[in-house]
Amino acid sequence: MTRRICVITGSRADYGHLQPVMAAIAAEPALILQVLVCGQHLDPRFGDTWKEVAREFTIDAKVSVPLRDDSNLAVAEATGAILTGVARELARLKPDIVMVLGDRYEILAAGTAALLLNIPIAHLHGGEITEGAMDDAMRHALSKMAALHFVAAQPYRARLLNMGETPDRVIVSGTPGLDNIDAAPNVSPQAIVKELGLDAAKHLFLITYHPVTLTADAGLTGVDALLKVLGGYEDTVMIFTGINSDPGHAALRERVAAFVAGDPRRRVAVQSLGHRRYRGLMKASTAVIGNSSSGLIEAPAFRVPSVNIGDRQKGRLRSSSVIDCGDDAPSIRAAILRALDPAFRTAIAAQHPAYGGGGAAQKIVAALRDTPLTQLSTKRFHDIIPSPS
After folding, report:
1. Is residue 190 scored above 80 in pLDDT?
2. Sheet order of strands, 203-208 included
3. pLDDT 10s digits, 358-389
4. What is the DSSP string of 54-86?
5. Which fold has domain 3-179+357-376?
6. What's the whole-model pTM score?
7. What dihedral do alpha carbons 41, 176, 133, 73 form, nearest 10°?
8. Per-domain boundaries in the chain
9. In this model, does residue 49 exceed pLDDT 70?
């Protein structure tokens, strides 16, 4: 009997990791893929990224809840609306398992809807820590809702066991976002800058800076320091990728837009490059700069130096190619200089990336296919330390 697996994706960020799993589910005769897109995917301000999903898969449901602004209240209201919309669609689709990835408010809402409908949840990328963002709490909440876990590395499995998850339901799959890393297009920096209407230059920086949701200014201090440092670089193409929809995103976007306008032949902001073009661009970059998880997960697989600014990703595993720095100009300047150092670049060429590379999707599909649904319908707390009698 075939199983219906509903994969819920809320943004371009989670879709880049879910896509290999979705393709593997679609290719497995014992599984039926259902696709529900929601949240940021359907907001034109963030690139209408649902269209990228639609080019590769049939979309079975959409839950569109545009944010009225970038305040915390608007995000809270949107979370409630997404919960309602996803619940209605899941009641219609009747999946056997819902699959979600990560830690964002759209996915917290989707997971809550599945939980309340008694649909087992398979969760990807649990057990991780990002101390500088509210995502951290949402990720752990989703882990407690989930019946089946696919984690990126052994330390994350250990953390879920500490949280009371049953050992045989926590599988070290690796990160599926690296499954297709070898298939990333070999694109020359010259071709990329030409496509984007920019002039060629010696260096190519790929930059992503998201709101830091647990700080009072949502990351403005860090982005101002970053732009100050970047303004001193000549003979460098700078490509900024889209800022996510977390509270405080509007002010960050305004800062970046003003900076890009100061030198439009060498700087550009692109709301969504698409996951294939993004990886091709990363592969061709001199350095990846900002505070996105892609600098810690994907860039190391390409042996590309990444400058990780501030505390947004504090707690994640690190490869040797990741250069951590503060959110002040001197620290950022020193980190970029290290990323450009030929000796550093030579040293990381032989590194073993912390998140490995490849094979995750097949492990995930095997568990989705073979785990008895009766085992997923109930959940118990697995005590590491015996409870007092």
Report:
1. no
2. 267-270, 236-241, 203-208, 287-290, 306-309, 322-325
3. 789 999 999 999 999 988 888 889 888 766 65
4. HHHS---EEE----SSSSHHHHHHHHHHHHHHH
5. Rossmann fold (3.40.50)
6. 0.84
7. 20
8. 3-179+357-376, 184-348
9. yes
